[in-house]
Write a structure and sequence with these properties.
This protein is mainly α and 69 residues long. The chain contains two helices and no strands.
């Protein structure tokens, strides 16, 4: 039997509110800001850390660390 425990890291994005790209992001609703930033993190960070997760999980028999969608 497998049991999953979901846990989260909190990321903070600091913006220069005078930059045009930041202004575009800030013009979106909070929900859309979060969705966009989380999407970027999943697309860029998750693949980059997968080799590290593979190394951590290698030979593990009791727990596997995964990045969820």
């Amino acid at each position: 039997m497998t049991v999953s425990i979901n846990h989260n890291l909190t990321f903070t994005t600091e913006l220069d509110e005078n930059h045009p790209v930041a202004q575009g992001l800030l013009s979106l609703s909070y929900e859309n800001q979060v969705a966009m930033l989380e999407g970027m993190l999943k697309a860029l960070v998750a693949p980059a850390i997968q080799p590290i997760l593979d190394e951590i999980n290698e030979g593990n028999t009791y727990a596997l660390l995964k990045v969820g969608a």
